[in-house]
């Protein structure tokens, strides 16, 4: 199971949010500083989110994201502000390992198929952000149908993997909910990476035992509730 430290970028800084709220942002230095910090601690891949992009400025932080990709040379999965084929194509051509398609995948599902055909399924990850069993889009403000049905549809369209974010527990550092993850794993053959609420080594082990392909560590990692070394050990 792969452990992905999060490098979320807002206003040129690496930040962590609570429940996706911009006003909750805490800054932790530059994206590259934090990327190197986690790689030095043993990480082999990064989860990068362009929060300015998610909030509507698609080209914000582009140079910083390219810097992280080029300077580290590790596998980067990137989300946030990818609104079109052109956005996704530009990032993949920059060297991003895979793009995460969230709202755009729900609004225009054929984008998943087209990009999978063009670049290969392994470079296309569909985002399944869910709250109470429903996919939520547009900054988690709008419900868009059953999360399991969307996961199956993304698989049929050719996505190579899924990012499941449990919005109800995201950023709270209060632990995970295993039931929605288990239900998702029963309904798809795709590798699933889980974000939201991962707080302890016990959470990581529980997800490993369920059979998830990876976990994203955000707020708990930056606040010191779990160290990357502890997470990597639990993931083995």
Automatic annotation (TrEMBL):
> What name does this protein carry?
1-(5-phosphoribosyl)-5-[(5-phosphoribosylamino)methylideneamino] imidazole-4-carboxamide isomerase
State one molecular function term (GO). 1-(5-phosphoribosyl)-5-[(5-phosphoribosylamino)methylideneamino]imidazole-4-carboxamide isomerase activity
Signal sequence, renumbered to the chain: none
Q: Where in the cell is it found?
A: Cytoplasm
Q: Which reaction equations make up its catalytic activity?
A: 1-(5-phospho-beta-D-ribosyl)-5-[(5-phospho-beta-D-ribosylamino)methylideneamino]imidazole-4-carboxamide = 5-[(5-phospho-1-deoxy-D-ribulos-1-ylimino)methylamino]-1-(5-phospho-beta-D-ribosyl)imidazole-4-carboxamide
InterPro entries this protein is in? Aldolase_TIM, His_biosynth, HisA/PriA, HisA_bact_arch, Isoase_HisA-like, RibuloseP-bd_barrel
Stated family: Belongs to the HisA/HisF family.
- State the encoding gene: hisA
């Amino acid at each position: 199971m792969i452990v992905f430290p999060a490098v979320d970028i807002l206003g040129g800084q690496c930040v962590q949010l609570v429940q996706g709220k911009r006003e909750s942002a805490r800054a932790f230095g530059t994206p590259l500083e934090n990327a190197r910090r986690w790689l030095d601690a043993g990480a082999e891949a990064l989860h990068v989110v362009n929060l300015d992009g998610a909030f509507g400025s698609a080209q914000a932080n582009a140079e910083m994201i390219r810097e992280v990709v080029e300077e580290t040379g590790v596998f980067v999965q990137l989300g946030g502000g990818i609104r079109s084929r052109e956005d996704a194509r530009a990032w993949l051509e920059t060297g991003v390992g895979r793009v995460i398609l969230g709202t755009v995948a729900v609004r225009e599902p054929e984008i998943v198929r087209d990009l999978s055909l063009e670049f290969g399924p392994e470079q296309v990850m569909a985002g399944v952000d869910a709250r109470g069993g429903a996919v939520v889009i547009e900054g988690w403000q709008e419900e868009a149908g059953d999360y399991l049905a969307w996961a199956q549809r993304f698989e049929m369209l050719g996505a190579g993997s899924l990012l499941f974010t449990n919005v109800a527990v995201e950023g709270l550092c209060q632990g995970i909910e295993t039931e929605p993850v288990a239900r998702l794993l029963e309904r798809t053959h795709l590798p699933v990476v889980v974000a939201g609420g991962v707080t302890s080594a016990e959470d990581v082990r529980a997800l490993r035992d369920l059979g998830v392909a990876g976990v994203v560590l955000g707020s708990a990692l930056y606040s010191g509730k779990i160290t990357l070394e502890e997470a990597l050990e639990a993931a083995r």
